[in-house]
Write a structure and sequence with these properties.
Structural class: alpha/beta
Strand order of the largest sheet: 1-2-3-5-6-7-8-10
Number of helices: 13
Distance between the termini: 38 Å
Helix content: 40-55%
Strand content: 5-15%
């Protein structure tokens, strides 16, 4: 296996069925601020490293008051300064929102700051509404054809490898820092998605694939099947490697876990209804006057979340890993409070007997 492949494939710690990782949206709860959410992200990265999670990825979302993760590269640079071992990455950078050269420069810089620890996960969705996407991309690019994503991906790859052919207009354009400026290698590319498009493309390119099971559970098995069927061995991987994002929350009691996830579900209901806001409190969720249609949505959403006591969450994750054949589970949580999220990741680690070490990055003072 290549050096890049070694960086992709995770290591099982404790008794977990597959490696466990973290997907962090830096959610902002009612009564708190983005400042608080980003401090929690630092504390979570330190906890994840100390407890043996494989990697910590941050998302890209825009114009959402309840999500403070809008600039993955900036957050990752800060997390790198507070950790020393855990892999850090984007879950993901929404490539149509950015110039490939800018992404190559940002992640080349991250790789130079934290050699061997950076993952570059890429998606093709805007991570926001149409109006905000237009503001991000500029005039004329909102309705970009689907085949533009592979072209932009190829361009990004060439910038990362610094290998444009001599006749190419960008032959003398270099992403700095890059592999020719020092001993570091380039960060491995991952494709993210919730549809067959990215699954097939990841397979055809021989790249690792991360599927968004946490918000599109019905398509998980078809997408993973398509990825595995389309997979062609590459210089990166000799066999498929599939991660699924899982919404999961453990608490000391099943009642507490349900109260927390219902708060996150109400936040999702408001987002899907065009009313994005901060993640409500469990009390707000309990008092909300749900219509029959809204209650149906909440029940459907909760059915995809693995939640309960630590033992119940362990059972749910074990079953999901078995049913999907996923090579890694990436856990995300949209609980109202940062304390509840941190407690959940610690309880899951306890349930699997994952290692417990003192955080290496120091206290999360400031952001």
């Amino acid at each position: 296996m290549s050096e890049t492949g070694d960086r992709i494939r995770g290591t099982v710690r404790g008794t977990a069925p597959v490696p466990l990782s973290v997907l962090d949206l830096a959610t902002v709860g009612s009564g708190s601020t983005s400042y608080d959410a980003l401090r929690t992200s630092v504390a979570l990265a330190e906890l994840a490293e100390a407890r043996g999670y494989e990697r910590h990825w941050v998302a890209e979302h825009h114009s959402m008051p309840g999500v403070a993760s809008s600039a993955p590269a900036v957050i990752l640079a800060h997390l790198a300064a507070h950790t020393s071992r855990i892999r850090l990455g984007s879950g993901g950078v929404m490539l149509p929102n950015h110039a490939p050269l800018a992404v190559a420069e940002q992640f080349g810089t991250l790789e130079a700051l934290a050699p061997g620890r950076i993952d570059l996960g890429l998606g093709r969705a805007p991570g926001t509404d149409g109006r905000t996407a237009a503001a991000l991309r500029g005039p004329g690019r909102l309705d970009e054809a689907a085949d533009e994503f592979p072209r932009r991906l190829a361009e990004l790859t060439r910038f990362l490898d610094d290998d444009f052919p001599d006749a190419h207009p960008y032959a003398r354009v270099h992403a700095v820092p890059g592999p020719v400026q020092g001993p570091t290698s380039r960060p491995p590319l991952w494709l993210l998605g919730s549809s067959g498009f990215s699954a097939r493309l990841a397979g055809e390119l021989g790249l690792p694939f991360a599927y968004a099971h946490h918000f599109s559970a019905a398509g998980t098995l078809p997408a993973l099947d398509l990825y595995r069927e389309s997979f062609r061995p590459s210089a990166v991987l000799d066999a498929p490697y599939a991660v699924i994002g899982v919404s999961a929350l453990a608490a000391d009691t099943a009642e507490e876990a349900r109260a927390q996830v219902r708060a996150g579900a109400l936040g999702m209901l408001r987002l899907r209804s065009g009313r994005p806001g901060l993640v409500p409190t469990p009390e707000e969720a309990a008092a909300y006057p749900y219509s029959p249609l809204e209650r149906e949505f909440i029940d459907s959403w909760l059915a995809t979340i693995v939640h309960g006591t630590p033992d119940e969450v362990r059972t749910g994750l074990d079953d999901l890993a078995k049913r999907t054949g996923a090579d890694e589970l990436m856990l995300t949580s949209s609980a109202h409070s940062g304390a509840a999220r941190l407690r959940s990741y610690a309880l899951v680690a306890d349930a699997y007997g994952m290692p417990s070490e003192a955080p290496a990055g120091g206290p999360a003072e400031g952001v």
